[in-house]
Amino acid sequence: MYKSLSDRLSGIFDRLKGRGTLSEDDVNAAMREIRIALLEADVALPVVKEFIEQAKAQAVGQELVKSINPAQMVIKIVNDQLIHALGDEPEAINLAAPSPMVILMVGLQGSGKTTTSAKLAKLLTTKFRKNVLLASLDVYRPAAQLQLETLAKQMEIASLPIVDGEKPIAITKRAMNAAKTKNTDVIILDTAGRLHIDDELMTELKEIKALSNPIETFLVADSLTGQDAVNIAKNFHDTIEITSIILTRADGDGRGGAALSMRHVTGRPIKFLGMGERVDQLEIFDPHRVASRILDMGDIVALVERASVLAESEDQEKLAKKLEKGHFDLSDMAKQLEGMQKMGGLSSMLGFLPGIGKIQDKLEGAGLDDSLVRRQLAVIRSMTKKERRNPNILNGSRRKRIALGAGVQVMEVNRLLKQFEQMQTMFKRMGKMGQKSFMRQGLGAMMRGM
Fold first, then answer.
1. Number of Cβ within a 10 Å radius of residue 225
2. What span, in angstroms and rounded, lies between the C-alpha atoms of 184 and 294?
3. Do the Cβ atoms of 223 and 217 come closer than 8 Å?
4. Could you tell me if 349 and 343 are in contact, meaning their C-beta atoms sit under 8 angstroms apart?
5. Distance set, CA 93 to CA 98, 101, 189, 269, 435 (Å)
6. Where are any strands of DSSP class E within 182-254?
7. Is the pLDDT score of 213 beyond 80?
8. Domains of the chain by range and CATH?
9. Pure H helices in 269-395
10. Angstrom distance (rounded) from CA 351 to CA 357
11. Torsional sign, CA 192, 198, 201, 205
């Protein structure tokens, strides 16, 4: 969601680096460009003014004069200001209360509240080891309650049974009573949204909040909404006093200004980012890491966290044991490719690498995107079990048959087999070093192989 802002800032910094020494006029000109870049990214005007004033005060001060590399110092100053605007340090979800704790999810219709409620339940269950009860109070949107119930069943998390015709206040009371009898740690109340803020919505939310006394009131906001998101946040906070913010669709192509503006306008922290449709795609919001993404410095920590989830899987442990015996075949390679897809795909993973923004177009032109992984999986799935176990039998006629079955050229089959040989060599080396080495380095070998 930061691509346009990232591209603009990278261009400004590249021009500064080419000048060696910087005058005050150079810094002022750069700050004017940064101001325009922020405004075009839908950052609220008061936030931009404060950002530029504080950055300029540091940039034209003693720090820049004494710096060995003034351009790098300007980048550091902007990075520090971005971190400050985003909240300085990550703030954890508030779970310091007796059970059952209530978390209230509010926001406009279409902001992703229901999916985010499910994602949060998944995170609390897996990362914080909490027993969660999901309850939908959205009796207005068709099938909203059924949607949450379906997601809960998929995750094997408890949900409050649906009672036709029951009103939100009654559902809230029933959820709280049910939680007391089921050893529930956290109740997540998914409230109804509207297409716009209205008195009826706010009155209902006030009543629900007074009854449930939530430990967290999360505003769920679509990060692609732009300036409207800031106004929405202010209205919700002024009326029902939110405690935290979750930004959804943070993996989209929006301008990213909402993240920089909403904390400033509400005084409340952004605690999570929704990065996709899957229930495991909810990230803890870290100002340092988000600032790094905006400045195209990458986010290696996020990549490692995604990889660690894959590394903990049972399939990875089985593969590590196979490698210790010197075995790695094309079926194993397919599982690695499938794991990459579970982590958001190749393009998503590349987005976390430093400097990737500057070569993104070249990578797309070279075909290094998610379709590459899909084509490679198609090639492997077009092989027989015998061929996957023993690629040495793949002569010319077999390769033609596989290419035809996968809908690709023979050249792609040959390329995949070459990549397989390289990965086989790397994985066998790691296998000799033991399971832990593979679990740590398996993804790295996968990326190097590609």
1. 22
2. 39
3. no
4. yes
5. 15, 12, 16, 10, 34
6. 186-190, 216-222, 244-248
7. yes
8. 3-86 (1.20.120.140), 101-285 (3.40.50.300), 300-449 (1.10.260.30)
9. 287-294, 300-311, 314-324, 330-342, 345-350, 356-365, 370-381, 385-389
10. 8
11. positive
| Token reading at 182 | 């089921």
CA distances from 313 to 14, 111, 328, 339 (A): 42, 32, 17, 10
pLDDT band with cut points at 50, 70 and 90 for residue 430: low
Which residues are CB-neighbours of 321 under 8 A, at least 6 positions away? 435
Name 246's bridge partners: 220, 272
Location of structure tokens 């002022």: 28
Residue 9: count other Cβ atoms within 10 Å of its Cβ.
25
Amino acid letter, 146: L
Q: pLDDT for 339-351, tens place per residue?
A: 777 666 555 555 5
Tell me the C-alpha to C-alpha distance, in Å, between residue 116 and each of 191, 260, 273, 342, 439.
Answer: 12, 21, 9, 18, 30
Nearest CA to 310 out of 164, 416, 202, 447 is that of: 447
146: exposed, middle or buried (Cβ count in 10 Å: 0-12, 13-18, 19+) = exposed
Q: How confident is the model at residue 7 (pLDDT cuts 50, 70, 90)?
A: confident
Three-class secondary structure of residue 159 per DSSP: strand
Kindly give the pairing relationship between strand 158-159 and strand 270-274.
Answer: unpaired
DSSP 391: G
User: What is the rounded average pLDDT of the residues 292-308?
Assistant: 57
pLDDT higher than 70, residue 309: no
DSSP 243-303: -EEEEE-TTSS---HHHHHHHHHH---EEEEE-SSSTT-EEE--HHHHHHHHTT---HHHH
pTM over 0.90: no
The strand pair at 270-274 and 282-284 is best described as antiparallel
Beta strands 132-136 and 158-159 are parallel
CB under 8 Å to 357, separation ≥6 — which residues?
A: 3, 6, 7, 10, 296
